[in-house]
Structure formats: structure tokens, C-alpha cells
Design a protein that fits this description.
Layout (H helix, E strand, L loop, with lengths): L16 H11 L6 E2 L15 E2 L2 H14 L25 H18 L4 E9 L7 E12 L4 E13 L1
Antiparallel strand pairs: 1-2, 3-4, 4-5
Amino acid sequence: MGNNRKTYDFASVGELNTVFENRLVEKSAGFPVGIKTPMEMGYDNAGPFKMNTSLAEQIRDNFRNMIQTNHGDRLMLPDFGANLQGLAFELLTENGDILAINRIRKTTTKYMPFINLKTFEPIQRRNDDAGLASVGVRVTYSVPTIDATEYAIEVIIYSGG
């Protein structure tokens, strides 16, 4: 009786070139537009950091970062940002909300004029810690130049009290 069995070494068997290429195409659904924040480590072929792969994602990320930024936080751009931290204890009052709306409108008009602001909604979060104030804003907007009809972002502001 002859020995007709084949023996394969696991180390010598890889994946077909077509399977490998298809896997790469699935992982990189789009070209990177910018670094996603908060920064995270990238895996596979994404590079060292996770990236935004659409213009709408990148605009959303940049807009959120701009609203969270306070004056003086950005090097060489002292008036960049909505400067909302100082309004942490004034939000949810009519005067505080109007100040926040005006600050968001002013920085958006100057630094991201392609965004059309739609609505503003103050947010109050309940905290177990009595010494921590947690308020925020929810802003809806559109970007007509890229047919982004309606997006919303929320920014939460924490302050000790």
C-alpha cells in the first residue's frame, strides 16, 4: 500500500494575492482626509493614527474642536474658538445662551464660513458630584458645498463649583 497522502506545512500556506488585495480595499474604504480626534492608534494600513475618510467627517471633527476651544488655547490664533468655558455657569439662562450663540456664530463666520448654523440647544447633565457643573450645547448645521444637509454636534463643558 503506497503513501498517497500530502503533507502541508502551515508556514508555507499564505493567502492568495486576490484575497489580500480585496482585504486591503475593504479596510481602506476611502482616502484619508485628516487625523481623527481624539487621536487613536491606527491599525493595518491606516497609518500610525486613525483618519477621517470623508470631508463631512473631517468638517464635523474640526467644528467640534473649534467650539470646544477657548480663546488663547490655539497658538498664534488668540481669538480662535467659541470661548464657552467662561459661560459654564451662565448657560441655561437667556443671557448666557445668547452670549454662547453669538460666540459660536462669530467664530464660525470667521474660521469656517462654509458652515450654515441652524439651531442651538443648551444641555444640562446631572452629576453625582455636587461640586461639578456639567452643561453643554447642541448645535445643528449644514454644509451646502458638500451636500451635507443636517448634522448635529454636542459639546459638554465641565466646571468645578
